[in-house]
């Protein structure tokens, strides 16, 4: 659910940025925002992996799976940011 709300916020920001002119700056801001969100997700994933190192059995596997999901989500956020930045650049 957090991913969906972040994607919506990123899309809204992209639409606002595209309407506001300054396409290069807007595209850079969109991509930077996505990169920051992805970095935060990756940090959360690292924290989960640290917790997994201290766990055993099913708890360890669950934490590792959650960390993998966050890393995949981070990749998706970065890709979405790049695509939206490209769309803003192309709209100029």
Protein architecture, described:
It is a single chain. Helix 1 (2-19) runs antiparallel to helix 2, helix 1 (2-19) runs parallel beside helix 3 and helix 2 (23-53) packs antiparallel against helix 3. By secondary structure, the protein is mainly alpha-helical. It contains three helices and no strands. It is elongated and about 55 Å long.
Largest sheet: none
Number of strands: 0
In percent, how much strand structure appears in the residues? under 5%
Q: Which overall shape is indicated by the principal axes computed on the Cα atoms?
A: elongated
Report Rg.
Answer: 16 Å
Mean pLDDT: 84
Structural class: mainly alpha
**Poorly predicted sequence stretches spanning 5 or more consecutive residues:** none
Number of helices: 3
Please estimate the helix content: over 70%
Please give the alpha-carbon distance between the first and last residues. Answer: 32 Å
The run of helices and strands is HHH
